[in-house]
Amino acid sequence: MTYCVGMMLKRGLVFMSDTRTNAGLDNISTFRKMAIWEDPGERSITLLSAGNLATTQAVVSLLDERSKSPEDRTPSLLGVPSMFQAARMVADTLREVIAQHADTGQRADSTFNATLLLGGQIKGGPHRLFLIYPEGNFIEAAGDTPFFQIGETKYGRPILVRAYDREMSFEAAMKLLLVSFDSTLKANLTVGAPFDFHCYEKDSLRTGQTGRVAGNDPYFQSISQGWGEALREALDMLPDFTLDTGR
Hints:
5-stranded antiparallel β-sheet; Glutamine Phosphoribosylpyrophosphate, subunit 1, domain 1; 5 helices; single chain; 247 residues; alpha+beta; globular
């Protein structure tokens, strides 16, 4: 399992992904689940992946190879005219990879499924964010749905729903995401640090601030500890439940 979030802000886009993959408690590995393609001044596109690791790596490799072969007539992420067309291309590639690996004889096609988040901006259009399903269809983030999660989503969602603000800064968004990721990894061992992030500035058309937050990072540790203490204090401030002792 994994946990990835893509968030739309007025200022741009913020992405974060964990790096843990596992095939049982005794087989845990670290793999990057974020890929970025850019043509400075023309476009910046970020992809986050959750699901079967072989499938997601194959999708990223195909997209990467096609982007590096300009003589190839196959469309690439560095050549499509809009983010919508980029989402269609990624969706088609995902469906292609799943179809190639599916073992219909054992009805195991779901084993190879993956879900993707695609966001970025291409010159002449706005910054956009898409959630791409294994079937090859996709939806776009909008005012009512300003962020997407994939993977192990339920533990980190409540804080995002309560605290998200389209006007927030990148710094505030990073703090919010780290609280969300901390809540998730504490509840599910299949999600773990380090966390990769990318903050894309609207209309910059180039890769923004990127980095990796380790599990022992001092700031992350302070966020984790501070959030736990704040929750306990908030709980103590709420009125106690009154039991009917007269029964």
